[in-house]
Design a protein that fits this description.
The protein has about 270 residues and is α/β, with parallel strands linked by helices. About 50% of the residues lie in helices and about 15% in strands. The longest helix has 22 residues.
Length: about 270
């Protein structure tokens, strides 16, 4: 199937079906992820209490694991949730925030990957490199390394996907997505995404929204990245000279709504653009 047409079908299902996206996420960006999910047409739920995560997960359509604010309690909750998700056939999206800087995070992420609980990994180059190499080599949670070439990013995505049996979306100035065999390189987006908190977390949420309504994880991951990229470009166009990153973040939510509600008009019928 034509990828552009497949994207259109996924967006249509997303807005019609309003899938439930269960987040075990971080308190820094939880509201942003909920807003983005709603703007895209999904229904977010945030639950990280170990006693209820299995029940919440089995009634959801996709699960997001975000390591942004990590804790032992969340590790217990995440492990319970992924076991339930695997039993129920629910897609799991891993956002391995800071794994290059913390042995605790890295080892837990590797445990989930090696047990084949993860459907899509969405991370920056530093995070994905740490997962592939199994080494801690960084500080903080921001990306501290960039691929020296477009080919390096795509190679990492392909190699990591093949190693762990899931889709890897290595995002940054250039985005590389692979299932280990096929690869997609994307160049949309805007530099202001680097100046706000949670742009990566929101991207992971969008990947989960798409994964909730399709069995094609490569297409789901690619479309999530495309939507945030197109939305960032649109949000930047909404800004006035006096605006900066704060207003850009507000406009980004509006832009995700407009991109997804008008997707088939803009992307499948370009002659009908106004």
């Amino acid at each position: 199937m034509d990828l552009k047409a497949q994207f259109g079908e996924i967006i249509d299902k997303l807005r019609r079906q309003k899938p439930v996206i269960h987040h075990i996420t971080n308190y820094v960006t939880a509201e942003s992820c909920a807003d983005i999910a709603l703007a895209a047409g999904a229904s977010p739920v945030m639950a990280d209490e170990p006693e209820e995560v299995e029940e919440i997960t089995c009634n959801a359509d996709a699960l997001v694991l975000n390591f942004g604010t990590f804790s032992f309690n969340k590790m217990i909750a995440m492990e319970k949730a992924v076991i339930m998700a695997k039993e129920a056939g629910i897609s799991v999206i891993l956002d391995p925030v800071g794994v290059m800087s913390s042995s605790m995070r890295l080892q837990f992420a590797l445990k989930l990957l090696e047990n084949r609980y993860i459907s899509i990994v969405r991370g920056n180059f530093s995070e994905c490199s740490a997962l592939f190499n199994g080494e801690v080599d960084g500080y903080g949670v921001d990306n501290i390394a960039e691929p020296t070439s477009q080919g390096e990013g795509l190679k990492l995505a392909k190699d990591a996907a093949a190693k762990f049996g899931c889709v890897f979306a290595v995002t940054g100035a250039v985005d590389s997505i692979s299932n280990g065999k096929q690869g997609i390189v994307l160049n949309n987006g805007h530099p202001l995404l680097e100046d706000i908190t949670g742009s990566g977390c929101m991207t992971s949420t969008l990947c989960a929204c798409c994964a909730a309504v399709t069995n094609d994880m490569l297409a789901a991951a690619a479309l999530g990245v495309v939507v945030i990229g197109q939305s960032a470009e649109l949000a930047a166009n909404f800004l006035e000279k006096k605006d900066g990153p704060g207003m850009f973040k507000v406009r980004l939510v509006d832009a995700v709504y407009h991109v997804t509600t008008k997707w088939n008009v803009i992307n499948l019928n370009p002659e009908r653009q106004n």
